[in-house]
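Researcher: Here's a chain I'd like modeled. Treat it as a single chain, no partners, no ligands.
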Amino acid sequence: MNKKIIITIARQYGSGGREIGELVAKALGIPLYDKELITEAATRGSLDEKVTKLADESAANSLLYTLAMGSNVLGTTMHFGYKMPLNDKLFILQSEVIKEYAHEGSCVIIGRCADYVLRDEEKLLRIFVYGDLDHREARVAERHPELKPGQIIDVISKTDKRRSSYYNFYTGNKWGKFDNYDIAINSSTLGIEGAAKIIAACASKLIEE
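Model: Modeled as a single isolated chain. Structure tokens:
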């Protein structure tokens, strides 16, 4: 691929967003970044990777820090002080990694406010993947057979709430709001492969322009 394209995918839990991203990346012949971002951020900040995974995509809970810095810390130049919440350290480090990966060339990035972090990129395709609750419940049940039906709904609800709070906190925008994205796609209607084909086709079109 000669021309650069960056695809960011935000997703409801159980919608298959990561699987769709994998298929899109494969179709376009470009890398996909997801949990690698945590590993790299943890390495750069000399943070415990096990701890950072627990903080990943979770908003900071320091009220004092929020009042001091405002709801949006992205773009703030600062040193990591002793009292900065781990969530904020991780977010800033991940943002640096995301920008560097995007600078290197075309890629697909899953979650982590990448659509906002890379908002100044010229060829950026911002995707939001959602799905009907019954389909999402079935997907989570297949992935986690140890969970009971009531537990599955609880996990879906809490995960979406966590992702929403994280995105809203760090960007000042609203997670899932249509005008924050270029494409909102229902994986329940189109299926994982169908959704991936549409996104890949849109990306290819954008590259040609």
